[in-house]
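Lab notebook page, bench 4
Experiment: in silico fold of construct C2
Operator: M.H.
Input chain length: 370 residues
Purpose: comparison with the prior construct
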Amino acid sequence: MGRLVGVDLARALAVFGMYVVHIGPPLSATSGVAGWIRYLADGHSSILFATLAGFSLMLIAGRREPKTGLAGRQARARIAIRAVVLLALGTTLAVEYGGVISLGFYGVYFLLALPLVRLSARTLAILAAALVMTSLLSPSVQESINAYDPLCRLSGVGVLDLLLTGFYPALTWMSFVIAGMALGCLDLSCGTVRWRLAAFGAALTVAAYGMSLLLAGPGALRSMAEDGPSSSGSGSMPSGGGSLPDMPASSLLSAGPHSGTTFDIIGSVGVAIFVIVGATVAMECLPRLCRLVRPVIAVGTMSLTAYVGHFLAQSALSVPAGTGTQQSWVPLLMFIFGATLFAAFWSRFFCRGPLEYLLNAATKPAKRIR
């Protein structure tokens, strides 16, 4: 399949991070090493997912040599079909389970990314940086538009939420997707490229979080995940659903997960880049480790199945989301073990996960485009 093993490992880590957020104990019930694991998963796992989504788009579009002509049209059609399927699947899950399901947002991201798949890595990086600074509509305007939005009435997540004001607003989150697209255009097999990217990711992380701590004080990195109503995902909206202009000036200098500030976005992009490059280097330079974590890598190859499957399993097993007062890590460990066992077994017989196979089948009509 020409997949990059390190990218699949990074995708598996994002899946497990999402499990930590959805199923693990809340931050208030953790401490020590467990608290750090829970804290690092907040926000960062969803942003890692978004960055990897952009990388995956470039795998379809041709990566370093974007497809042109007939092959380019077919690739863009495949991306568009995937976007529609994800939007429909995300809306269905939101109707069935409530809360905020990220899949619908990813469908929007894919559609918005279609005109960008032939851009160079440098142009994509500049565009991602330009999108870091975003502004949201005032709550009164938002309510007026949502009142006439049929999608909002159906699932609680309307067009305005998808684009501007939701937990994963496209105007903000496209910066993560485009950053991933820029990574996809680079040669990650080149040692020089990898070291430069690792240094760049580390510099973004240290600069963003360091400046936030310097300007906003010790509480600058506090997570806002549990300040407002819970959701089924990790978003970058300010707590309570307010808009950035309504937030105190001191809050705009924070960089904690879910704060959605400039420092949070820059730091999280740095973390995502560092994880992706680090996983790629580890899988290439440590063959024994690669063999050891092969079952984990299998989870990364079927991340859509792992994501949707955990909602189904939570509902079937009546496992509550990790936003209450539970302090047990047992349910989380069971989900991680179950997903790894299933992925390892399935990958022995099939090259794609169940939902990945269906998604690929849905895109086959793109081959008929002439």
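Observations: The first helix runs from residue 5 to 23. The chain is about 65% helix and 0% strand.
Next step: discuss at group meeting.
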